[in-house]
Fold DNA replication and repair protein RecF.
Amino acid sequence: MNIKSLRLIHFRNYENVEFNFKENCIHCFYGKNAQGKTNLIESIYFLSHLHSFRTHSLDSLIKESYHQMLIEAKVESGHTLSKVKVVVCDQKKHLFHNDNPIKKYSDFVGIVNAISFCPDDILLFSAPKKIRRNFIDMELIKLSKKYTFTLSRYNRYLKNRNIALKQEKIDKDLIDVYTSQMIEDEIVIMKQRKNFIKNLMEYSNRLYPFFSSQKEVLSAKYETFVDTSQDLKEQIVKSYENTYVKDCMYKATNMGIHRDDIQFLLNDKNINEMASQGQKRSYLLAMKLGLAQMVYEKTNQYPILLLDDVFSELDTIRKKELIQILPENMQIFITSAEEMDPSLFKNRKVKFYKVNNGFAKEVSQ
Ligand SMILES: Nc1ncnc2c1ncn2[C@@H]1O[C@H](COP(=O)(O)OP(=O)(O)OP(=O)(O)O)[C@@H](O)[C@H]1O
Ligand SMILES: [Mg+2]
């Protein structure tokens, strides 16, 4: 997948800019701090996920003293060209695909599949479990329509079940109807989550040695409320029966895949409890590149890779190694506060841009 062109109007510190990007090329944006490098990467991420990796506030994405912003891109995917556009105004996102309005976010997410790596990503390990769950969900949503559909239906049933639990007189029959509908969806979601995590860790393990000279094994444990190696339906049914009284007391559904978590392990120990910052960074880099590889195997094309400030803590050898393992048929965007040495990119298609206060100018090397 490739972004052929990108237009930003009143996005962050960009007034009105347009870029033409090259297919399967590494695009390097460098410049002093606070010039707009991460903003650029953020705009591509937003097109892919419909949210930012650093804020929940839509207003902060709009350039100061304006009321709306636009991100538009022409995207090549499997030799087909399409146009995607997001306009944000009045706290709302307006979506367009080939100039047709799109109502459902789920019909838009994944048209652009971008995977990012940002310095703050290591917070994933210490964040509340919702953040880890969202990470898995987002990737599965981009990859599987069935997952998207099933998860949103589950959430609807869950909402209805919780409303039913909040009534003065609880209708047990109604609750049972919602519960049995939720169970069918939970089985699908659990299987997909478990499978996704297993595959992701297999790919990540293959890449980790590029970032660490130590012999270490990455793994992850999918944590849900039943034992996923046993028959799911029987266990889930029993669990809901056992917590029914508690659910009535709390007036909410205490059990379900909406409470799932993932434990990331390094040599069988929770990464959060023992790993150094450097190890966490390497773990995440391996995981993000593993994810890209996994997407490739599934869809036959690489996602777009966004690497924000990835070089800052790598020595020259590691930088070179990182660039060498990046697949050649992948479009990549890299930011750096320092000018990048062109010799790092030997035999690669590469373009350099200097970013200065909301302007990015291509520079020849
Ligand atoms: N809504 C907005 N309107 C105007 N300017 C904004 C807006 N949001 C952010 N900015 C400006 O964008 C700049 C930050 O951009 P960005 O985070 O892309 O910096 P950067 O080039 O990645 O810097 P660093 O090297 O420190 O990571 C800041 O100057 C900030 O004031
Ligand atoms: Mg930055």
Q: What stands out?
A: The helical segments are 37-49, 129-143, 145-165, 172-207, 232-250, 271-274, 277-299, 316-325.
